Amino acid sequence: MVDAHQGSVLSPLLFILVLEALSREFHTGVPWELLYADDLVVIADSLEECISKLRVWKAGMESKGLRVNMKKTKFLISGVGLNLLQDSGEFPCAICRSGVGVNSIVCSQCKLWVHKKCSGLTGRLVADPEFVCHRCRGVACPIDGRPVTHVDVDGT
């Protein structure tokens, strides 16, 4: 057994070699499962297929004495038409497109109302003729068309 200290230039290489050897029996192949250091990317055509592959990896790793941290696991769902924001309410927020109430501010450029939570402002909101919303500044806005917002895998 080789003993490499944490921070050693050999540590990442040895980790990758061991992880590659341990995962060969349940690895289905590139490009659908990509290992990078201690991270794994699983790509699938459906959420169900992705969860199934994740379960196989998790069981395989646990059978080798390793642990998958499910609390740090993230799912990204992408596809055509998922970035369409849908308006709701009489006065939709310029950012999230759901209806605004009294705790909102108007954007000086697009003239649309913005929720306090979407504005990035803290404290009490007061009229600001210089306020520019995230959308007008070109900052990414939330996606509304996702089929799910929470994924449960075996209770986690």
Could you list some keywords that capture this structure?
156 residues, alpha+beta, two-stranded antiparallel sheet, two-stranded antiparallel ribbon, 4 helices, 4 strands, 25% helix, 9% strand
Question: How would you describe what is shown here?
Answer:
The chain has 156 residues and is α+β, with helices and mostly antiparallel strands. Helix content is 25%, strand content 9%. The chain is built from 4 helices and 4 strands, in the order αββαββαα. The strands form 2 sheets. A two-stranded antiparallel ribbon has the order 1-2. The radius of gyration is 23 Å and the shape is elongated.
Structure summary:
This protein has 156 residues and is α+β, with helices and mostly antiparallel strands. The protein is built from four helices and four strands; from the N terminus they run H-E-E-H-E-E-H-H. Strand 3 and strand 4 (113-115) form a beta hairpin.
